Every structure is written in C-alpha cells, then in structure tokens.
C-alpha cells in the first residue's frame, strides 16, 4: 500500500491487514465499483449502511485494497475488550463516547484525523439496521456535524452481501462457501449549500437525511429493489432483533425437521410393523 500523505498506516495496521486479507478473500466473492470516487488526497468521510457485524471488515477491505487505510469511529466499549481494544488503539481507530461527558471528544479526535488527511469511516445509523428488510434506518446526526464542521468530502459506500457470510445480529459465519459481496462507492454527497447555515438541529437533520438518501439509493441499485416509502426509525418503530432471531431459529428448526423426515418415516414404518410382516 502507498497511502496518500497524512493517511497513517502503522505497523499494527499492516499486520492486521495481512492477517485478515486472506480470510476475506476466501470467504467472499468481491464485486467492487466506484473506486474513482475515493479522494486521492486529503481527508474524507466514508459512510456505509450497516446490516451485519461482518460489514466493517468488507467495508475496510474495499478501502484498504484501494490504498486507503481507513480509521473507524467505533463505540468505546470495544476498546475495553482485552487485547482487541489494544489492537484497535494501535491501528488508530477512534473511540466514540456515546452518552457521556466525553462525547464531544470523539468528534474532536475525528476532526483532527480528517484535518491530517485521514479517511474516517462511519456507520451513520449508529448500529445494525433494524429495518425488517435490512434497508438503512434513520441516521444519527454525528456524521453531519463532522462533515459540516470540516467541509471534507462525504463518500457514500453502499454494500450488500456480507449478511450471507455472517447473518444479521450474529457473531459467527454460518457458511464456509464464498459469498458474493457488492461494495460500491458513489460520488461525494454535495453539502455545500449548507456550509453557511447555523449548525443547528434543522441543518444537521437536513444533511443527515441527504447522506442517508444517497446511501439508500445506491443500495437500491445494488439490490435491484425499491426501498420502502418510509424510513425505519428505531426510536419510534422499535427493535426487531429478538423477533428476527426468533424467526431464524424457527426456520432452522423447520429445516432440521425436513432433513430428518425421511429417517422419521423409516422409524415409524419399523415401529408399525408386526411379526407377521417380518
């Protein structure tokens, strides 16, 4: 990798990339597009939709393989995990202190990184989508605040297919067969008409919705489907994780029942046989 000036690529980052690249190459069939929309120099924000816990790896794989050593905004709890948190720090990722007095520090650290020329990656939804059909939810305004404060490009990167490797809300892969994963970077979202406006709730919501709309439009092209008319708002529409996992568990039980049905039929025939039948 030959990253642009200002985009750091420390030894730990190189080591992690070297270890993970073969795993990602073997577990996915990559269909990538839009690399020409990644700024060659200077800081920029990369935003993506978030369907599965595997998304950060496919997102990073796309960027790193295009010479962009991305730095993620990640929830602070991850940095408290023994050894893993140490790696995150050494790689250069940025902890997000949500709901604490240090919440502003995260944006300041991200702003400093962007001013140095780094690429900062953000999942604007703040968590895995809870939309029943896995469309992007209503975004949080942190990405808009950062974008308007720094005026760096915001590149929307839609991805689809990582859930075929690691299902939604799961932590482990459910297949060893390589799965197709599409990742497409679009042109930067134009927020220039908002730069001179006060950075208040109205402006932040307008910018956030514009970013999320671009992500959703790109995802719709990838999926070949129309998105829902109404965007899922987790604060209003609720959390679908429990319902989704229950449905998956029921589907697995049904698959197991169908696989075992021939054996069960044989067993029933043997039980129903009489001595005269033998």
Offer a quick outline of the entry.
With 278 residues, this protein is an alpha/beta fold. It folds into 2 domains: 221 residues, Glycerol-3-phosphate (1)-acyltransferase (3-Layer(aba) Sandwich); 39 residues.
Strand content: 5-15%
In which order are the strands of the major sheet placed?
1-7-6-2-5-3-4
Number of helices: 9
Low-confidence stretches: none
How is the main sheet built?
Answer: 7 strands, mixed
| Tally of discrete structural domains | 2
Structural class by sheet pairing and helices: alpha/beta
Distance between the termini: 73 Å
Question: What is the H/E order?
Answer: HEEHEHHEHEHEEHHH
- What CATH calls the topology of the largest domain is Glycerol-3-phosphate (1)-acyltransferase
CATH secondary-structure class of the largest domain? Alpha Beta
Looking at the overall shape, the CATH architecture of the largest domain is 3-Layer(aba) Sandwich
Shape label:
globular
Radius of gyration: 22 Å
What integer is the average pLDDT? Answer: 91
Per DSSP E runs of 2 or more residues, the count of β-strands stands at 7
Helix fraction bin: 40-55%
In CATH terms, the superfamily of the largest domain is Glycerol-3-phosphate (1)-acyltransferase
């Amino acid at each position: 990798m030959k990253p642009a000036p200002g985009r750091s690529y420390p030894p730990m980052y190189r080591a992690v990339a070297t270890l993970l690249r073969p795993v990602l190459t073997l577990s996915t069939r990559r269909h990538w597009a839009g690399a020409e929309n990644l700024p060659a120099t200077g800081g920029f924000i990369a935003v993506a939709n978030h369907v599965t816990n595997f998304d950060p790896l496919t997102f990073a794989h796309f960027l790193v393989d295009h010479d962009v050593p991305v730095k993620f905004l990640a929830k602070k709890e991850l940095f408290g995990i023994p050894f893993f948190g140490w790696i995150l720090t050494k790689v250069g990722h940025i902890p997000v202190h949500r709901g604490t007095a240090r919440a502003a520090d995260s944006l300041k650290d991200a702003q400093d990184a962007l001013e140095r020329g780094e690429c900062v990656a953000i999942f604007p939804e703040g968590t895995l989508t809870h939309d029943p059909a896995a469309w992007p939810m209503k975004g949080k305004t942190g990405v808009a605040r950062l974008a308007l404060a720094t005026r760096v490009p915001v590149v929307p990167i839609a991805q689809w297919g990582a859930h075929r490797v690691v299902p939604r809300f799961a932590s482990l892969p459910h297949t060893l067969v390589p799965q197709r994963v599409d990742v497409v970077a679009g042109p930067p979202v134009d927020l220039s008409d908002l730069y001179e406006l006060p950075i208040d709730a109205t402006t932040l919501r307008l910018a956030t919705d514009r970013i999320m709309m671009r992500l959703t439009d790109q995802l719709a092209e990838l999926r070949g489907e129309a998105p829902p008319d109404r965007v899922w708002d987790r604060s209003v529409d609720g959390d679908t994780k429990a319902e989704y996992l229950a449905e998956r568990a029921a589907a697995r039980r049904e698959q197991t029942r169908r696989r075992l049905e021939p054996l069960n039929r044989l067993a029933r025939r043997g039980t129903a046989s009489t001595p005269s039948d033998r």
